[in-house]
Amino acid sequence: MILNEILIAGFGGQGIMLMGKLLAYGAIYKGLEVTFYPSYGPEMRGGTANCTVVISDQRIGSPVRNEFAYLMAMNQASVDKFSERIKPGGVIVCNATLVESPPERRDVKIVKIPANQIAMEMENPQVANMVAMGGLIHELKIISYESLTKGLVRVLPQYRHNLIPLNEQAIQKGFEALEKKLNLEGYDEQSKGTNCDQPGTV
Amino acid sequence: MVVEQSTYLAVSEKNLMSGNEAIGEGAIRAGCQFFFGYPITPQNELFEFMAQMLPQTGGTFLQSESELSGINMVYGAAAGGGRCMTSSSGPGFTLMGEGLTTLATAQMPAVVVCVTRAGPGLGRIASAQSDYRLATRGGGHGDYQCLVLGPASAQELYDLTYEAFELADRYRNPVIILSDAILGQMMEPVVTDHLPRMKTPPKEWAVRGKGTNPRKVIKVAPHTDEELIDWNRQLKKKYQLMQDNEQRYEALLTRDAELIVVAFGSTARIVLDSVLRARNEGMAVGMFRPISLFPYPQKALEEIVRQGTRKLLVVEANNGQMVQDVRLAVCGAAEIAHYGFGGGHIFSPYEIYREIRRLGKS
Question: ipTM > 0.85?
Answer without folding.
Answer: yes
